[in-house]
Amino acid sequence: MQQGYDGNVPATAPLFAALGDPVRLAMLARLCTGGPLSTMVLGQGIEVSRQAITKHLQVLEDAGLVSSDRVGRDRLWQMRPQQLVAAREYLDRMSAQWDTRLERLRKFVEEEFD
Question: CB neighbours (10 Å) of residue 18?
Fold first, then answer.
């Protein structure tokens, strides 16, 4: 196993993949400020088909970032902030690992050139 490898990488990969698309990120931002919202409202102003909007929302749902409830012929989507908390915790752990590595490098360089 590679040093510094975090066993949560496979679990967080779909989350970061879902966040990496501008359309999905825009829809998630809308849900953060105005949710729960219908599929139609989430797709307003986004230059993709309704079918593409539905696929993007499915990716977000598969990553655990949103959930939905059927209301009549449409779905209401809402944000699931727990996954963003998990992403933040993962990034904080990665940041701490890099801080540790950079500190070791700084000490090494200072010892070599002092």
Answer: 23
Token representation of residue 106: 């700084």
Q: Dihedral sign, CA of 48, 54, 55, 58?
A: positive
Looking up tokens 């540790």, which residue turns up?
Answer: 100
pLDDT per residue as tens digits for the range 75-87 = 999 999 888 888 8
Determine the Cα–Cα distance for residues 17 and 12; give it in Å rounded to an integer.
9
What is the rounded CA–CA span in Å between residue 66 and residue 60? 6
All structural domains of the chain: 9-113 (1.10.10.10)
Rounded average pLDDT over 47-73: 93
End-to-end CA distance of the chain: give it in Å, rounded.
35
- On the question of pLDDT at 9 being above 70, the answer is no
Written as six digits, the tokens of 25 are 């990120």
Main-chain dihedrals φ then ψ at residue 93, nearest 5 degrees: -65, -45
